[in-house]
Amino acid sequence: xxxxxxxxxxGKSLTIVVxxxxxxDRLPExxxxxxxxxxxxxxxxxxxEVEAARGATKTIPIVFATHADPVGVGHVVSLARPGxxxxxxxxxxxxxxxKELEMMKHALxxxxxxxxxxxxxxxxxxxxxxxxxxxxxxxxxxxxAVPVRTAEDLDGALARMARERxxxxxxxxxxxxxxxxxxxxxxSLKHHLAGMxxxxxxxxxxxxxxxxxxxVDLTRRAATYIDKILKGVKPADLPVEQAxxxxxxxxxxxxxxxxxxxxxxxxLRADRVIE
Length: 275
Fold this sequence. Notes:
By secondary structure, the protein is of the alpha/beta class. It has two domains: 122 residues, Response regulator (Rossmann fold, 3-Layer(aba) Sandwich); 149 residues, Rossmann fold (3-Layer(aba) Sandwich). Helix content is 41%, strand content 19%. α4 runs parallel beside α5.
């Protein structure tokens, strides 16, 4: 939609070649295929896709839209001066994780032990894990970090949290947690765990709550980067922009099912409440 708004017409002024993979392990193969086709720009949404794209090319421009921590994982030199062939928009996951834990503690004050669901294939989850640990200390809560790699790992991960007396968990945003949002919602109810998620789609699917940037807006804004690069601007000269809009979404139906009462003060802060 963003490129169409800028005047591009697919099949006339623009050709879009899509390569997708159902697991992160296949992304390098997809990226290599795009490089063989000698495309002008590679659009790689998050850090997971960017890692594969950067492994395939050091020259073709790469634009990201929802990168969690481009500086932290070394995909750009700095936000102001990215350097290299990679730039785009970021939601700065290390700061977001800390805020999500803080809001979760406000909504669930009785919770003293929180699980943190990490995706091991997401490069940005390494600094995110460190940020979660630092935030937990400030909040006076313990965290249990549980890494997963594929959808098949999710049931076991939440079962482990339940066994280790975790009452709530933070699913750090990744392509896996977004794609498997229905499964994650079902598993959170199965194991009686209150979940804080990184996208509102997770809450619409039945998760308890989310605090996240508008990913659709970030993706739309990425079109301006692609436009400028196609017109000759180098990625190294395009500063990385940050998300400007964040929303708190709460699913009261899920809260009722879990036997949780969300305080009026937290509900007042919500941008959207699903009943």
